[in-house]
Amino acid sequence: MEPILIVLGIILIIVVGGGLWLYAGRRRGQVPDEVSAHKPMSVEDLLPSEEGEEPPGEESPEAEAGAERAATLESPESIPGRMQRLRARLAGAGGFGKAVLSVLSRGDLTEEDWEEIEDTLLTSDLGIEVTTSLMDELRTQAKVLGTSDPEAVRTVLRAELLKLVDPTLDRSLNLERPTPADGAQGVPAAAILMVGVNGTGKTTTCGKLARVLVAQDKTIVLGAADTFRAAAAEQLTTWGERVGVDVVRSEKEGADPASVAYDAARQAADQGTDVVVVDTAGRLQNKAGLMDELGKIKRVMEKIAPVGEILLVLDATTGQNGMRQAQVFSEAVGITGIVLTKLDGTAKGGIVVTVQRELGVPVKLVGLGEGADDLAPFDPEGFVDALLG
Ligand SMILES: Nc1nc2c(ncn2[C@@H]2O[C@H](COP(=O)(O)OP(=O)(O)OP(=O)(O)O)[C@@H](O)[C@H]2O)c(=O)[nH]1
Ligand SMILES: [Mg+2]
Predict the structure, then answer these.
(1) What pTM does this model have?
(2) Which residues line ligand 1 (CB under 6 A)?
(3) In this structure, which ligand is nearest to the CA of 198?
(4) Which single residue of 130, 188, 201, 207 could bond 126 by disulfide (Cβ 3.0 to 4.6 Å)?
């Protein structure tokens, strides 16, 4: 071998070896600052190194990941902002209000006109009972009014619809911190349990609700108690990550949903989180075992503190079919509020009135689209105004 190659080889070994020694020393924090600051140019400087790109004051990988997450977090839309934006979509749910108004404004209504009104009300899912009493009321008012003045007619119809929707119901979510159960540790969070049949929008609503709460500066923990499919926990985790909310889940498919719900409530209590929102698997109301499981989830969560809010998620497009489901869920776990989803995809806004009557609990939230912020508190006046166009 040529002597020159041997010499070059030795130089290379010294340079590379020395460089790696310095590099390893710095990682262990054993190289004094002066050494690393004043050391001559070495191989290390020439190697592509992530360390070299680090800002001064080296951060731990965890802190770095945290900063990266914070930079990509979304800011959910404010509540007034979204209510304003979603108004037009509510109008879609209530073509019926506008249609009735236009017939009423003809003045001097014939029997055919009244039939037209009745058909419109019935197809909006108001149900026969409500339709009949509203028809009686409108006939009386029309006689008293004796006018077709659109403004006057509108005022009458508005008042009647508002009475049906009932603005006196308390629609606020119960976000008060509950009293801890006997012997429970920590500061329990207000708990919200999301229930309903398959595909109504429970997981989506948990995600959207977390955003509503983030917009209100609340701290939240999400619990993925739908353990039937791994994809369900994944779906919820994605929602949580977008706004920096922790999701408690089980890595094991088919784990006991009650235990996941408990862990979520436990973590929230340990951390002093404001609200814990627990998603559950969709279930048909005629599966007794699955309905019992819901009861168990609730009972286990109550080992920490009472569950203040049990929201039944109903798909508005299923109309009257949703009513039977609603009753069974209500008997199984005691519903405290209704979330009516997919109101953007139906002209059957009358379901708001029907479901409240049958269950005796208010619609608290409405889903008006697939967008992340397409969930809003239900506002009776806004709803009726939207119905009337
Ligand atoms: N248009 C519209 N789509 C919605 C709304 N809420 C939910 N969805 C859609 O409904 C579909 C089902 O939503 P999920 O949240 O997965 O329903 P789920 O009740 O969790 O379903 P399971 O867990 O399978 O029972 C998704 O495609 C959602 O985007 C809404 O308010 N409007
Ligand atoms: Mg789901």
Answers:
(1) 0.82
(2) 196, 198-204, 226, 232, 281-282, 341-342, 344-345, 367-370, 374
(3) 1
(4) 130
* Nearest alpha-carbon partner for 104 in 57, 179, 63, 155: 155
User: In a structure prediction context, what are the per-residue pLDDT tens digits for the chain, which is 389 residues long?
Assistant: 565 666 555 555 555 544 444 344 333 333 333 333 333 333 333 333 333 344 444 567 766 766 666 668 999 999 888 988 888 888 766 678 888 988 988 878 899 999 999 999 998 888 899 999 999 999 888 888 777 777 888 898 899 999 999 999 999 999 999 999 998 899 999 999 999 999 999 999 999 999 999 999 999 999 999 998 889 999 999 999 999 999 999 988 889 999 999 999 999 999 999 999 999 999 988 888 899 999 999 999 999 999 999 999 999 988 777 778 888 898 889 999 999 999 988 878 888 999 998 889 999 999 999 999 999 999 999 999 888 88
**Cα of 321 to ligand 2 centre, how many Å?**
20
Given the CA of residue 313, which atom of ligand 1 is nearest to it? 19
What SS3 state is found at 131? helix
Distance CA 359, CA 339 (A): 13
